[in-house]
Write a structure and sequence with these properties.
By secondary structure, this protein is α/β, with parallel strands linked by helices. It has a single domain, classed as 2-Layer Sandwich (Nucleotidyltransferase, domain 5), CATH 3.30.420. A hairpin with a 3-residue loop joins strand 1 and strand 2. Helix 2 crosses helix 3. The longest helix has 19 residues.
Length: about 150
């Protein structure tokens, strides 16, 4: 008879980061996930500002009068405020990983910000990522977030 069959499966601590360019919510859970415990909420006011408010000294758009259109808009992935916020989140995750606060990590963010976030994460944090979800769920209730985890 196998004695290990009676032992429960090892539970792992999971961190779930749900973020966009202006807000982040960090949850902790134990697998299998039945509940999420919100650990931290971070607001990034600069992430809510329009480009014209953040870069007021930039040239605007030139509609050219003869049908020409030239845009000076930046790509979202090159936005310094998004980069800064993602770097702050990455530092917090790295500190928590170093302190052994989680075994695995799930990232949930809109596609553009998810890419920025992945770029900022250390190799060790990226190695802990078990799932990435490219959806904007930062303002959703925890039950809705749990449904998307599918873990």
């Amino acid at each position: 008879m196998n004695q290990d069959a009676d032992k429960p499966l090892a539970q792992e601590t999971l961190y779930v980061l749900v973020a966009d360019s202006s807000r982040a919510r960090l949850f902790q859970a134990v697998t299998p996930v039945k509940a999420l415990n919100e650990v931290v909420t971070k607001e990034h006011e600069k992430g809510r500002e329009k480009d014209s408010e953040r870069y007021s000294d930039r040239p605007g758009s030139d509609h050219g009068g003869v049908g020409g259109y030239q845009s000076y808009d930046r790509e979202p992935s090159e936005d310094p405020e998004e980069q800064r916020f993602a770097a702050q989140l990455s530092e917090q995750l790295e500190k928590a990983r170093h302190e052994g606060q989680f075994d695995n990590l799930v990232l949930i963010a809109p596609p553009e910000f998810l890419g920025v976030l992945r770029h900022q994460l250390s190799k060790d944090c990226m190695a802990a990522v078990v799932k990435s979800i490219d959806k904007d769920l930062v303002r959703q209730e925890t039950d809705s977030i749990i449904e998307h985890l599918d873990l």
